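Thread: Newbie trying to understand structure tokens

Hi all, I'm a second-year student working on a class project, and my supervisor (Dr. K.) asked me to get a predicted structure for one chain before our next meeting. I've only ever worked with sequences, so writing a 3D structure as a token string is new to me. If someone could post the tokens and maybe explain what I'm looking at, I'd be very grateful. Here's the chain:
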Amino acid sequence: MVRLTPVKTLNFGRYKDVVISDQGEFADRQTRRILRTELINNSRNPDAFVKATLMLQKRHSKTQEWQDVDSFDGAHLKSGQEVRMILSSSQTLSVYEELKRLYKQDAFHQHEAVIVLQDDHLVLSERARDVIIQLLEYDDARLWEALDHLSPGIIDDIVHYGILQKQKQAVEQFEEQLAKDNWDEREWGKFFQDHQWIFGHNLSYRFLDLYEEQANLAGAGFDNTGTNLLDFLMITESDASFLVLVEIKKPNSALLAPRPYRPPNIYRPGTELVGGVSQLQSYCHTLTHQAANYGTNARELAKRGIYAFEPKAILVIGSTSQFDDDINRVSSFELFRRGLHNPEIITYDELLARAKHMVNLSTQESV
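---
Reply by user tm_fold:
Sure, no problem. This is what the structure looks like when written as tokens:
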């Protein structure tokens, strides 16, 4: 990942006096010439950020401080009059070297892209912003090749940074909507479809990709209408891919019945949980039967290198916050979940925690 280091800004309004009088000529006198410079924030012409004044200073004795001579109002000049301040060649060189130093050193900081970091937000100078916009509008692949040559890997870093920022925003939205608890199953399904990376890899460490949304398992093909609709059909990412069925319930779906099945410490699974498990097990059985008999769906999948032998299923439902740290409720749910061969049950808060963990890992790797 590209390291962005804050740099100092121009110290606008800063005065600096540079003595330009010849040392031998004015060392013992009570007057001297100086160049007074000031850095200004010139929004119309950012390159013109140095303001300079040639001035005469005086003192009454060698032990006193130098004082600015009163300025002369040019409006009082009469016709034919003029005011001159003639500089020797060495004095002129002193003026040139000081101005060159200012434009060379301070201009470097002004043109730096990153000026300061504030609350994790980048603040760019107006000139830097204009330069970046011009670069983005320069539609030529050679530009990006040149950037990658100057800083190998920078293009990949920029892409990775953009993906990471979108993932962070998705995690924030996930957490916000989980707290509000007003999305229905379809809205949650749409969110997970837009952010498939949240599933990342399942607990068998196989990476997943979306194959079909709202798949029909009863019709002639997955994209036909029908009654047995599954929220997602996903596939493992490999040379030979395998189906993974995903069913989405709501975060507030009860994981356990409100009262013990066998008092005082045994709770039966909630109706939505049992229904979701039965639903997925039925779908898995249907696909396994079709695969064994090489039915329509099986043939369609095989052409794409996808197979449905004992497909894995994932049920997203409820939240462990429902247990209120009651050890009996926690154990009843976990024993039920661990006793299932299929589907895998994951709660919304567990899925959120995994999404946060994945983003944190990506952030650490980018540093």
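A couple of things are worth pointing out once you decode it. Residues 1-9, 107-118, 202-208, 223-227 have pLDDT under 50 and may be disordered. The first strand starts at residue 15 and ends at 19. Feel free to ask follow-ups in this thread.
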